[in-house]
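I had to read the description of the data format several times before I understood it. For illustration, here is how one protein appears when written out as sequence plus structure tokens:
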Amino acid sequence: MNAPIHREMPEGTLDAAAALAHASAKWDGDIVRQLTDYIAIPAKSPGFDKDWAANGHIDNVLRRAAQWVEEQKVEGLKLELIRLEGRTPVIFFEVPASAGDGGSRQTMSAAGPSQGAKAPSGGSEAHEVASVGAQGTVLMYGHMDKQPEFTGWRKDLGPWTPKYEDGKLYGRGGADDGYAVYASIAAVQALKAQKVAHPRIVGLIETCEESGSYDLMPYIDALRPRLGDVALVICLDSGAGNYDPLWLTTSLRGMASGTLKVEILTEGVHSGDASGLVPSSFRIMRQLLDRLEDSKPAACCPTAFIARCLANVWRKRRPPPPSWATRSTSAFRGPTTTAAAPPRLRCPPPPTRCRPSSTAPGRRRSASPALRAFRR
């Protein structure tokens, strides 16, 4: 779920007004222009552009972003464009941990995990920040590949024709997710402008996210020694309820995709010969899917509750039940003890003529009293 951040930082950690002014100036004066140029480039994800390597759009936006990061001259920052064979490229940057100005703000040791950190004054929050700085790394993640054009654009708008209007920049990819690398560096700059201590920070910007990130894990494995002990991942690729506060995604459902195939027979058979003998592939598939997500209503509510609700509706909307239903009204009552089995709704018995007949051939059995009452 997405939720606005409502807790303030410990007093003295950061001058929020100065940080906002710094970030706003950087955003309005430079980053908007960078994103405008980025939107104009159709850097579609490889799932939507099979010739992405030959077209060169992904390489173009990645090189431009890398050049901008290097031009910021962030103290200690090292950046590298990395390309594994047959994979989409990524940006990897690293900013070493830094100490504060030694004044009222929190300070931390930049020593490695084995050396520990000097606990600052300022309460548990300050100690926690120091621990992360000494023993963990913050990973900032984003991507620069884009969704395809799609339709439904306003007449004066388009996916590759950026337009700035009423404080909003329209076009494909600006919010998903071209801003990530620029916002990451701007945040680091805001901390360094106030000499606020921060832990070691690394950034990983991929170009295969919109296609399922199938190239991401090979890079994670290749860069694992350089990523270090990651204590916090900041994924700059989520949503917000409005444009007023800063929003934080506290939980997010993932996606598992696959192809389920159930095979029973190698060739067709006549239904008269095999019906009832050969299992239904569709029924088997339903049972397998029910292991992941129970499709029965009882999975959401207690069975007794459903039985009582249905019984109440049935009594209000239906005429008095026939004799066979009157005898089984106890099925609609909840369990009398906690150990009792959950009640089940009983379906009416099949019509008499649908049952196997034990009468002599040629004689038609008359309907039962219960069936005649049900028909009336």
Observations:
- The longest helix spans residues 16-39.
- The longest strand covers residues 137-143.
